Amino acid sequence: MKKWQLYLIVFLSIVSAFFMYNSYKLIKENTALKKELKETNEGYDRNIEYAIKLEDSIVGFQNKINELEAADKFSLQGNEKAAQYLNDIDEQTDWQKFIIDTLMKTNEVEGNNPLVPFDGMAGAMKITDAKILNNRWIIARFSDGTYTGEMLLRYDINKDKSIDFKVLDQTLFS
What we know:
The protein is an alpha+beta fold and about 170 residues long. Helix content is about 50%, strand content about 20%.
C-alpha cells in the first residue's frame, strides 16, 4: 500500500470520527430539546386547562351572584315592579347608583349627617352603607367610628331628578 493511500485512510477515519461525534452530539441535543419542548408543551397545556377551570369558576360565581341578586326580593334587582317604576321615570339612569350616590352626598356636610337622627359621641355621625329595598325605601347604616345604628328611609324622586329623603325609623346600637 502506498503512503498517500494510508494518509487518505487515516484522514478519512479522522473525518468520519469527527462527523460521528458531531452527529452523536446533535442527536443528544435534539433529544434534550425535544424533552424540554415536550415539558414546555405539557406545562402550557396545564396552564390552559387551569385557565379554563378558572374561567368556568368565574362564570359560575357570576351566575351565583346573579341568582342571589334575583332571589333578593328586597332589592331593585329582585323587585321587577320597583325597578319598572324607576325605569318609567327615566330608563337611562342607573337608579341604584344614582340614589346611593345622592344619599352618600349628604355626608359631605361638616359635622353630623343631617339625616342621621343621633349626634355622634366619638365623632361625626355619617352614613356608611345603604341598600335600596324598593322604589320607596332604603335601609342605611350609620356610624361615628365607635357607635353604629341603622335607619329606614323613604325617598321620593322629584321631576328634576332631585331626591328627598325622610327618616321613618332608626335604632342605635350600644
